[in-house]
Amino acid sequence: MSEIFHASADILETRTRNALLEAGASTETAEATTQALLYASRIGVDSHGVRLVTHYAAMLRAGRLNGTPALKVHRTAPATALLDADDGLGHYACYHAMQLAIEMAAQTGIGAVGVMRSSHCGAAGAYALKAPEAGMVGIMTSNSDANVTPFRGTHAFHGTNPIAMAAPVEGQMPWLLDMATSSIPFNRVRLYRSLGLPLPAGVAADAEGNMTQDAMQASMLLPLGGESYGFKGAGLAGMVSILSAVLTGAMIDPRMIQMTDTSDFTTPRNVGHFCIVLDPARFVGREGFDRALKDYLAMLRAILSTTAGESVMAPGDREWKTMEERKRTGIPVDPDTRGFLKL
After folding, report:
1. Is the pTM of this model over 0.85?
2. Terminal-to-terminal C-alpha distance of the chain
3. CATH code of the region 69-285
């Protein structure tokens, strides 16, 4: 196992932003991408953190990614819109789409924005969390290239297709769900390759469909639920594909160019995203929402865990705990990323 180096968030933020700017990203694109990557690194989602800057910089230089995109918004109704990301980095487009959905929800109670002609956007929770900042509930989905087998399938079909949802909790950090619909994200496989670590059992298969824990041999992932209950993850992946690609006009998973396809670094991939924002004040009302959610979370966290001396965690609790720990210890950086950022 390779040694893990720790760096402060401030240093990583500066080096990441500069690397993107040097690769040709606009100031707005570099800032949005940096904030999304640092979000993931701060909360412990290292597979989608600063390690991705190496790939993004390479794609900017190669021409697959447009470093200076001109986002185009098509308002289709008071509460709906479609955003053309102009083949830019997905982080810039997703933050913009979520802000638009928040503005529409403030007027109508709900806002829904689809995004097409985009690219990989990192951790979806970065964008869902913008809604609680405005006192609203945010949902974000994204499709991706095929690297997950359908339930009992023989080859990859869906992407890891994440779902994120964030809700405001009065006086507390937001409730946050941020998950792939696969067993693990494929970027975690790439991270484990860099670190020289074995994969957990039952999450990946080799090119022949045999289960493997060797990150170097992993060719595809299993859907969430694994060999016995993977139909659940596969169904959720399909839901994300319909929202993020079919509804928006983006490329469906099995037709999308692979993120790491070395034969073509110039053709845009047309990734799709979908965000929904809900204003609680237009449903049960702000006071009723705050009261019920706090009551729900208090009851949940009061349940004793099977781990001695601990209680059950709500979605987001682990992430916020990790964020506080990393403020003290720094953020772990894998050897490849450390070399690229010259740390």
Report:
1. yes
2. 19
3. 3.30.1370.60
